Automatic annotation (TrEMBL):
Example of a GO biological process term: pyridine nucleotide biosynthetic process
This protein's pathway: Cofactor biosynthesis; nicotinate biosynthesis; nicotinate from nicotinamide: step 1/1
Keywords: Hydrolase, Metal-binding, Pyridine nucleotide biosynthesis
Family assignment from sequence similarity: Belongs to the isochorismatase family.
One Pfam family this sequence matches: Isochorismatase
Keyword Oxidoreductase: no
Domain of life, source organism: Bacteria
Top-level EC class as recorded in UniProt: hydrolase
Species of origin: Sphingobacterium allocomposti
GO MF term set: metal ion binding; nicotinamidase activity
NCBIfam families, A to Z: PRK11609.1 (NF008623)
Protein's name according to its UniProt entry: Nicotinamidase
Domain Isochorismatase-like: from-to ranges: 3-180
Tagged with keyword Transmembrane: no
Length: 196
């Protein structure tokens, strides 16, 4: 069984959103088309409380895109984004959701960020995604969505460590920093991941 994980295709990550990824909207028609090729389609949603510790607004004197230490882990500070129940946290209007069988939310604990759809950044808590996929008999996982260099990359790396054959769909993802994504792609290949 194969599964498609659609990562964080939420309004705040699209042009006009609070943490916009350049051309993030252009991948949506392709993601919609792809969905019929998979046995199982799931999605993740970045779902922060308004006072999340990854928000620069919570750290006076610091600015978005600076790195600090948050509860012992390096943390890039972001503009406020994907606040629970706000329009920016909702899925892109154009994203097809009729085949999405389950949605895994992450980033609810303000003390720790959560890039991967499987675990928080400290690997303290699971989201349940791995158990869900295993229970459904999934052996192969493809990952798409936003942003390539953060949540897509970390989801794909954790998918490998959970034992799934894993690929990143390059035409169905966009990076916040495309240069950083180049080195992350190499790390993913070295761990046994596939790029499609
Ligand atoms: C993401 C930064 C902060 C992502 C989420 O979805 O890639 N990036 N929160
Ligand atoms: Zn976030």
């Amino acid at each position: 069984m194969n599964a498609l994980i659609i990562v964080d295709v939420q309004k705040d990550f699209l042009p006009g959103g609070r943490l916009a990824v350049a051309d993030g909207d252009t991948i949506i028609p392709y993601i919609n088309e792809l969905q019929s090729r998979y046995d199982i389609v799931v999605a993740t949603q970045d779902w922060h409380p308004g006072d999340h510790g990854s928000f620069a607004s919570q750290h006076p004197g610091h600015s978005p895109f600076e790195t600090i230490v948050l509860n012992g882990l390096p943390q890039v500070l972001w503009p406020d984004h994907c606040v629970q129940e706000t329009d920016g946290a909702s899925f892109a209007d154009k994203l097809r959701t009729d085949k999405i069988g389950a949605i895994f939310r992450k980033g609810m604990d303000k003390r720790i960020d959560s890039y991967s759809g499987f675990y928080d950044n400290g690997r303290l808590k699971k989201t349940g995604l791995s158990g869900f996929l295993k229970d459904m008999g999934v052996d192969e996982v493809h990952v798409c969505g936003l942003a390539a260099d953060y949540c897509v990359f970390f989801t794909a790396m954790d998918s490998l460590s959970e034992g799934f054959q894993t690929g990143i769909l390059l035409d169905a993802t966009k990076a916040i920093d495309p240069r950083q994504f180049e080195s992350k792609k190499q790390a993913f290949l070295q761990r046994g991941g596939q790029l499609y």
